[in-house]
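Write out the bound-state structure for zinc ion.
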Amino acid sequence: MRIQLETDGGFALIPGLSRPLTVDTKELRPVDAAELSRLVEDAGFFARPTSGGEAPAGAADVRRFTLSVVAGARRHTVSFSDPVTDPHLAALRDFVRTHARGG
Amino acid sequence: MCHHAPHRHPILCILPPQILRELARNGTAAERDIALATLATDQTARMTRVTCELQESGAHHALMPAGPARKQRTVYDGGAREALPGRVVRNEGDKATRDAAVNEAYDGLGATWNFYFTAYQRNSIDDRGVRLDATVHYGKRYDNAFWNGQQMIFGDGDGKYFNRFTAALDVIGHELTHGVTGSEARLAYLGQPGALNESISDIFGSLIKQFTLDQTADRADWLIGVGLFSSRVKANGGRAAALRSLKSPGTGYNDPVLGKDPQPAHMADFVHTSRDNGGVHINSGIPNRAFYLAAMAIGGKAWERAGRIWYETIRDRQLKPTAQFADFALRTAMAAGRLYGSASDERTAVLAAWRQVGVTVPSLQAEPHVPASVATVGAAD
Ligand SMILES: [Zn+2]
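---
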């Protein structure tokens, strides 16, 4: 399974901090790979609508996050904005940030 | 086209289809692309948040009684969670806490309120005395600050590249000015109007710092976010890195890891991108530098005349939410003419500033002639 996080917008668009981050379970320790699978499962990721929450009206400087998961033949993408109130999406986003290489 | 939010909040809504169509017809290439893509996709999925031109007349200001002109601040502690607003930690009049972020937010809200009230007689960000709320310690290692349409939110930074986001007064002023723009010009958060929206927040954020330090234009650093980056982030010439520079857009930082500040300083370098809502934090460098040039040419304290001209421009009811740089430039020239006379040095400085950044001010001939003798401060209303 592979998961990618893209981050766009925010108070500043810093080129070096806005590259996509990717995590592949093949490169993870088994315990981390299992955790990622569980997070994807708990989030019901593949059944989610592609928009996982929009910024409130009149908002500015919010960031937009796009998570894409490929697992075998299944692939799905969910986008969501600050403030992130869905704990499942927040957990997936944070997992990628913690475990991505060469971001 | 959109419905009223509760009165004390800026009345805002999603970009209505007719504005998208107008951008698709008359916008820049990047705006056209985004507008067409948005029109073509499921609106709930790809909606770009922008403000909505609600009232043609500004009637809601007249209908609502003005609140008392006094500060009403509340600072919340987000407790490293992403839930809003969090726990109240400092109310108006409370003594300083031991938490630097709380005190910086409280003081920054106060400095912003004082600035708008003293410089422009504006009663809080909505000019009707709305309370000012901020949440600090939002999220974990959260490296952003944002305005959610009603309050400010500050992260603590990742501790690696970013310090806490309350560390720079101009950043607090920037976020609150989004509230001012949201209750006045309502510039769409996309493409050129979005870059103008961002530029207005940078300009007044910088002016709030200059006002608080009582600096003249020539003494100001014209930087946004000094102190926000950790000491490991590099800038050219060995000076402290900042996020953006109004004086020299593109020189805020230049770092092996973060890359280089991507802002252009001239229309010739306008960045066409679909990221960042069409580069709203990138192309804002162009109107930012126009303001800097006008303020330097006019001289003195930048908020007094250059700032006044820009302030009257965002309150100009003829400024549309879809305004392009050239439309905005024309409105600044007209505001300068109303405030200081059509043959004034101030108006000349404004026109020269836009010319220097490559923005052509359209149809000046159509501008009504206002002799200096009848031009009065506040004539924009
Ligand atoms: Zn902003």
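---
Residues 2-102 of chain A form one domain.
The interface with chain B takes residues 8-18, 49-51, 54-63, 79, 81-85, 90, 94 of chain A (CB under 8 Å).
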